[in-house]
Design brief:
about 500 residues; alpha/beta; Rossmann fold; Nucleotidyltransferase, domain 5; 3 domains; eight-stranded mixed sheet; seven-stranded mixed sheet; 16 helices; disordered C terminus
Length: about 500
């Protein structure tokens, strides 16, 4: 029966109201039990009391909690606009790790090493007097269940910097980003959480203490200029250069918290006090350093694929970026029957044109690939009129490939349209990706993630820093290869047979 119907039928009795009042009193003192959607009966209690008792997570907070269930995830980031609920979810996760379970559903939290029964959590805030004392401590007090015995100790600044849950013996240590990095060394932890970005050396010192317990990290922050967090945490890589898939990222806008204690009027009032660039970071959750990303549509979760054998009828194009003083960058892109495209191979080669050509041929022969077009940077032709008898890089490479029936063309230098084409492929007008990357193409992926426009001019020309593989990528996109069926020519029957 619905709530309205129950009210209309007079089913909210005095006895029901008494129970609702007792239950409401419990939830006010133990708010963590109410971090979920209310049941039908509980919503009826809210109606009876005229008070909201349950405070469920917003969609972004729920996304983080669901990610926490995956034991393979070790580093978590919760970033975006102000008032997204970052400090709230951070405090809730810290307390839940101490208790060893999610109180709102009584499900246990699985830890990688079960030999430890008392959990150790470290929460790193900003300045003691301004941020920790005025923001973190009140938030911890708000969500600490009053039915759990608690012991706290204050530091020299008068801040409750040490919390012990007497029921489990688990501890919470609060530290400040203004402390020297040396004081963060030596302590093992199950979780280190950062409220706003820490200094890099503090993160490194804390990370060492997570090894013994198989601990986790949580970054809850509004990123403004902390590009190192984006580069080393959000886009972390393994030693072999592959993306580190143990990192779980959640990013949101201020409006993702609408209806969860935040109104549109609140947002508009805050926005009126901000400059345009600040609105992007603080409301839309897009830090200033990301506003210049060339390929902002790229997503590891969407665009990365495990390598597989290229089907024999797919068309594979190659693009070669040549520079006299640097290694050659070669990228191969396969076009599938459905015209989806896959960056399937990259080469970083040191050697002459003949060597590079032969390496490409070896790869083609090993996979029995159907070759489409091969292009090279126009620089490879050099100044052909300067030395009429001198063979250019283009000539030498072209002759090597031609010996195996492969042609060579000069690539386009239309970078602006090439970048636009790649972005169109990353997310098509059909609201789906049309371009994917084998996850072992580590240089290409890294440059796609890191390439930025000049922050001073924001012109269409990307910064000339580590862009050899993305140069090859946009030239492949400009080829706009469309799949077509291969033709087998039968010399005896003198006819074409469509495979």
């Amino acid at each position: 029966m619905g709530i309205v119907a129950a009210v209309d039928k007079g089913e909210i009795t005095r006895q029901f109201i008494d129970k609702a009042m007792a239950y409401g009193d419990f939830l006010r003192k133990n708010k963590l039990y109410a971090f979920r959607e209310a049941t039908e009966t509980e919503r009826l209690m809210e109606v009876a009391l005229g008070e909201k008792l349950f405070w469920p997570p917003n969609l972004k907070q729920m996304e983080l909690l669901e990610g926490w269930l995956d034991p393979a995830k070790r580093v978590f980031t919760f970033t975006g606009g102000n008032r997204l609920g970052k400090t709230t979810i951070e405090v809730i996760v810290c307390l839940s790790v101490m208790f060893g379970r999610w109180l709102w559903n009584d499900k246990p939290i699985i830890f990688p090493k079960k030999i430890y029964h008392r959990r150790k959590v470290r929460l790193v805030g900003q300045a003691w007097e301004t941020q920790i004392k005025t923001v973190l401590i009140p938030k911890l007090r708000e969500w600490w269940p009053k039915n759990r015995p608690l012991e706290t100790r204050k530091n020299n600044q008068g801040v409750e910097s040490f919390w012990r849950d007497l029921a489990t013996g688990s501890t919470l240590e609060i530290m400040s980003n203004v402390q020297r990095s040396e004081v963060f060394e030596g302590e093992d932890n199950d979780l280190v959480a950062y409220d706003e970005p820490p200094d890099r050396d503090i993160r490194v010192a804390c990370a060492r203490g997570l090894i013994d317990r198989g601990g986790r990290e949580l970054f809850a922050a509004t990123l403004i200029k902390e590009a190192w967090v984006h580069r080393e945490v959000i886009k972390a890589r393994l030693p072999d250069g592959k993306p580190n898939l143990s990192v779980f990222n959640v990013s949101g806008r201020m409006r993702d918290n609408l209806g969860y204690g935040l109104s549109e009027e609140d947002i508009q009032e805050f926005a009126s006090k901000l400059k345009p660039g600040e609105i992007e970071a603080r409301i839309e959750g897009k830090p200033s350093y990301m506003q210049s990303l060339v390929y902002e549509k790229f997503s590891r979760d969407i665009h990365l694929k495990k390598p597989f054998k290229i089907p024999l009828d797919w068309i594979v194009d190659f693009s070669i970026d040549f520079h006299p003083s640097k290694p050659w960058a070669v990228v191969a892109m396969a076009t599938a029957r459905n015209n989806f495209k896959y960056v399937c191979k990259e080469f970083e080669l040191r050697g002459g044109p003949k060597f590079v050509g032969e390496e490409i041929v070896r790869y083609i022969r090993e996979g029995n690939l159907r070759v489409g077009r091969v292009t090279i940077d126009p620089l490879a032709r050099g100044d052909e009129n300067a030395h009429e008898d001198a063979a250019t890089v283009y000539d030498l490479l072209g002759n090597t490939l031609a010996a195996y029936g492969i042609g060579l063309e000069v690539a386009s230098k239309d970078k602006s349209n090439g970048i636009a084409k790649v972005n169109d492929l990353l997310w098509t007008e059909n609201e789906m990706p049309g371009l994917f990357f084998f996850d072992d193409c580590v240089k290409t992926i890294q440059q796609v993630e890191d390439l930025m426009y000049d922050p001073e001019t924001l012109k269409d020309t990307a910064l000339k820093i580590e862009d050899d593989f993305t140069e090859a990528l946009y030239r492949l996109a400009l080829l706009d290869t469309k799949w077509y069926a291969p033709i087998e020519y039968d010399m005896k029957l003198q006819k074409n047979v469509m495979l």
